[in-house]
Amino acid sequence: MRTLLFRRRGLLVVVYAVAIVGSAFALVPVLWMISTALKGDNAVFSVPPQLVPASPKVSNFHQATTLIPFWHYLRNSLLVAGLGALGTVFSAALVAYPLARLKAPGMKVIFALVVATLLLPQQVLLISQFLIFKRLGWYGTYLPLIVPSWLGGGGFNVFLLRQFFLTLPPELDQAALADGAGHFRIFFRIILPQSVPALLAVGLLDFASKWNDFLGPLIYLNRTSTYTLPLGLASFRDLYNTAWNYLMAGTILAVVPCVVLFFLGQRLLVRGLAVRAKG
Amino acid sequence: MARLSLRGLAKRYGTVNAVRDVSLDAADGEFLVLLGPSGSGKSTILKLIAGIEAADGGEIWIGNGRVDTLAPGYRDVAMVFQSYALYPHMTVAANLAFPLRSLRVSREETHRRVAEVSALLELDGLLDRRPRQLSGGQQQRVALGRAIIRRPRVFLLDEPLSSLDAKLRARTRIEVTRLHTRVGATTVYVTHDQVEAMTMGDRVAVLDDGVVRQIDTPEVVYEYPADLVVADFLGSPPMNVMPVEARRDGDGTRFRADGIDLVVPGPLTPLPDRSALGIRAEYLRITTPGENGPMMKAVVDEVELLGSDRLVWATVGSSRVAVRVPARHRVSPGESIAIAVDPAGIRLFDAESGQLMAGGKSLSPQ
User: What's the predicted TM-score (pTM) here?
Assistant: First the structure.
């Protein structure tokens, strides 16, 4: 009994140690970002490094939003990430439903193919995708950043939602079927309303990844007025100088919408993600 | 008008034949019970009728139309599930209205019918609640309501009472029967509960291993099981079955086996080579000394008190039989007794095929 207690306590110590070290890895850069955002131009690279700046410059935040058209970029980002995430949620769910419910021959093969696309590195697709979108005349527009999300939502999201749909009792679909509902009605009225946590999880994760996406906008957007935040903030860096303090201040502001969304959806998000562990 | 006909229905899951060549008819307004152990294919038959599963063979007719080729919504069939399958994210009112919305019934008509059904099933005060805020009995009534609101031609119930507690089950049994009388739709009711089958069904179809073994009124199914499988499944305790040698004996028939030598009046033809004598526990009696008539010598193994009755398990030769006696009749294990046989209860089966001999019935007083 004592040894068991001791062992359990020893285990706790290890768990906490790992957790503390892990969170330090995640948090130190954030602290450093906040610290830098408050420093004057000369204090950024002061030696020895200061974590708490001697004279915090809150005006950096004002500079960050006025030196570049910050709010305009924010609007562009909201447009791209918002419409993209919406498309991902909708189309991934639409693909996941038959994969979870229909018993047509070949379903397993299709599902395996969808999951197999996860193994493909994005970089491999980059050039061919670019050529396709250029041929379509979409170069320089938001379409290459938004439309693909509406065409399936990606293998990972399809997988996540399918696993969630499998946890819903099939009797409900069967009852709806017997009650005269078609597949679309079952999908919209029975499946989706019960899947809000999973849909939210997929939506939030996808929103965050599109919000932070740098490469996509960099490739497809060619006018500064259409830039999203990550691209816009990059203009604080140029060939010879980087305004680290403004860049960090802008980055903090750019992170705010995502953080707010995550806190709002946190409880549902955990429930949605827990399903993946079961799958 | 809404007679239900199944013709040669078959369904396979992989290599398992869940339903094989099932043909049966339910007359308009009939309450037909499908009774069988779990895995006998009874629920699958319901799903085939409802269109939730597609049949691998056979036809389903409702009225004068073949429906197995139609989508579920067009079959005019409503189903109540064992788990109720209420939509958890919808209110009771929305649950009731769902089938009508699917069938594009007008808003006013939907409203009217929801009010009508909720009044009938005493759900008035609950319309704004969600299923998880309801008791088991209330959920059950919502599930019934969602089925009858469509006014279907055929009503399918899949063990609807099995998740209720014993007391509520007995009450709901009566309610369902009453509802059927009011609604009057042809009803197919699946259960593994014999009491439900006996009390509710106009007729009972006994299923085993995907095959209909017998379909008849509850009385006939209980008294004259079509074969040994039905005899063994139905009744608690099941029918006593003893392998015997049956011979004509003057005007009567003589059954002999180890420990058994019975002569009963009435000839039996044809007599199978190897027979099995079946008799229910209530046709057996422990004799008082000096009694005459057909009887068997036995040794008591166990005695179970069932309240009003006592069930005496005894060994006769190489067979074990159950005898139902009044509770006041005391016997103890190890006691030697003589068991009197009421000839009216004797059924004769062909031990090879298990079928009830046609002559088996003729032994009973007409």
Answer: 0.80
